[in-house]
Amino acid sequence: MSNITTKPGKQATRGEKTIISENVETLLFYRNVSILCVLIPVIIQMCLFYDTLSTTFYAMNSIATAVLWCSYKFMCFMANVKRGPTGEVLDCGTDLNMTNGMAEHCKDLSILTWIVLISSMFSEWLWLALLLAPLRALYMFWVHVAAPWIFAPPPDEEEITIISENVETLLFYRNVSILCVLIPVIIQMCLFYDK
Questions:
Q1: Does pLDDT of 26 surpass 70?
Q2: Contact, 78 vs 103, CB < 8 A?
Q3: H or E segment at 89?
Q4: Within the chain, where are the H helices?
Q5: Which helix (H) or strand (E) segment is 90 a member of?
Q6: Which residues are registered as beta bridge partners of 83?
Q7: CA–CA separation, 52 vs 43, rounded Å?
């Protein structure tokens, strides 16, 4: 058996260390690919088609760059590691590689933006593909929030009766406790009240 020395305070578990290292790798990958996907089309378009560039090119590249930057910064915020005064890991941040998490949506948005940036070199009409992001957001809002709320079945009669019975029981005990306090006070007032 190996001799393991422990340091005082809570030490980062292997899971936390793995999450931290994978988050760093994921952030580096998304940062580097985002930079490349912004620079490659700009350099190619500026070198080959500088005379024919329109304001749409500049505006859409600025929007795409802002989307990538915001997505990256949001992932950095989620993966922020909180450490104690002695350097121990208090919170390893959100796992960016977790499926069905908020980071998954940020990564999807980044990938969509990369595809649009690269494909926009061939036609400016491909910038319209960026509209898929708000459409997906509306779809997810409808599926996960609005539709279940709107089309939720009404509560069962049993649930309503159980809730009303619980409320009646609570009211009964409240009234009994009030009476238990008030009766001795009233008796004292009646017995010891000087006329």
A1: yes
A2: yes
A3: strand 89-91
A4: 14-48, 55-78, 102-119, 132-141, 147-150, 157-192
A5: strand 89-91
A6: 89
A7: 14
Closest residue by Cα to residue 8 from 85, 91, 66, 96: 85
What is the structure's pLDDT at 175? 74
Contact between 86 and 79 (Cβ < 8 Å): no
Smallest Cα–Cα separation from 106: which of 138, 67, 145, 144?
67
Cα 109 to Cα 113: distance, rounded to the nearest angstrom: 6
Query: CA 101, 106, 109, 110 torsion: positive or negative?
Result: negative
Measured distance CA(95)–CA(78) in Å, rounded? 8
Torsion of CA 22, 26, 32, 33, to 10 degrees: 140
Residues 103, 30 contacting (CB under 8 angstroms): no
Given a contact cutoff of 8 angstroms between Cβ atoms, the answer to whether 148 and 72 are in contact is no
Res 115: pLDDT: 93
